[in-house]
Write the structure tokens for this entry.
Amino acid sequence: MLHLRPVRILIALCGVLLVTFLGYKVVPVNATTVGFAYLLVILVLASTWGFLEAALASVLATLVFNFFFLPPIGTFTIADPQNWVALSSFLATSLIASRLSAKARARASEAVERQRDLERLYAFSRAMLEIETGAPFSKQLLERLVQVFDLRAAVLYERHSGDYSCVGIPGPDGIESNLRNAAIPGGTSPQDVPPFVVVAVSRGSEPVASMALRGATMPAGVLQGIANLVAIGLERARAQDLAQQIEAARQSEQLRTTLIDAMAHEFKTPLTLIRAATTSLLASPEIPTINRTEQLAIADEEAKHLQELIDDSIEMARLDTARIEIHPELANLEETLREVLASMQTEIDERPVQIYLNGVLPPIPFDKRLLKLAIRQLLDNALKYTPADTPVQLGAYMKDGVLTMDVTDCGKGIPDEEQNRIFERFYRSPSVKGQIPGSGLGLSIADRIVRAHNGELTVSSHPGQTTFRITLPVLRQEVD
């Protein structure tokens, strides 16, 4: 704003000359009226632009007031001693009024600036709370800092990780060492690296980071307020990371426990049948060949079943902790459904399970291994949570390039308030906990497999009927 000062001084002097012209030529008035007019102009100048413009206007007003309105008119001589007092009082009054008005203006400007700084600090604190967990926290923090305070660039150094984050124009050479020194306990005081301002970020008396800001024309108190908010934000991010690690460890332990329990329960039946067949063969080595063949066939079938259970358990553990990658292959859905039913004969036993197909299903690309696992989880869920004498239906049809599969049972249904949570990992209805064995992983795994195929798994339920529906768009990519 300094480049505008000569223009403002010229305007101030012209204002005094305008009052002089009006009072002397256009509307002749007495000296008292003109004096008050001068004071009014000077007060307006002081409150608008500051003391310098008003002081120069006061000096000019004193001179022209003497020249045009105090006798003898047209000279700078003052004949009456009383006019000396009046002129001196006018000049003193003008200067004092200018000074007081300028101070009031400066204080008002400071108050407005402080209010603006407080609003910015508040906006920055709100912006920190809205930072998402996906992208790096430090980067998002600097982006919001630059946006809220209208900075050209910002650099953050975190002492614990040793990482640098930068938004905007990169810092000059040597700024990294300066930031490191500012974040070392007992290190040197922050030294500015023009055009950057360096600020230490501390939690209590312990430095945790340091910042370099470019374009920061703000008081030291505001810079310290920013540093305090950044320290709070970094501490909050560390606390969230720690909480996530603790939760991941807890869920990992819970996953390990539930998988072990599930395997122990599921493996018991095929192991019992295999053990019964081998025990019978060992106890009666002279049994007829036909009986021996039947026993070996049972043992072989249950061994295959046991292998499938082991593969499914390993797959469930892997799918729960890793990103699912699908490997589509051309396969027949009807054949896949019947393979799932054949692999679950022990669980199905004498239960009525029916397959309904709407037309002939042509071979389509999907990950057969994963989709079988998803259907198995849905069928196992239907068998466990419905009475033994109620039927379970499997339906499938193709329409407009979308594959739809339904698993429907005639059980008691799922309450409305639980339908939005049943696909959550480890979630089990309070009404069945401790009554029906399960891990709370099956539906979650099925949902993840379907979503990996760009599909959707939904549930609709009311007393007497529950339907889990898989909708899959037919994959267009090349198959293995």
Summary: The mean pLDDT is 77. The longest helix spans residues 220-283. The longest strand covers residues 206-214.
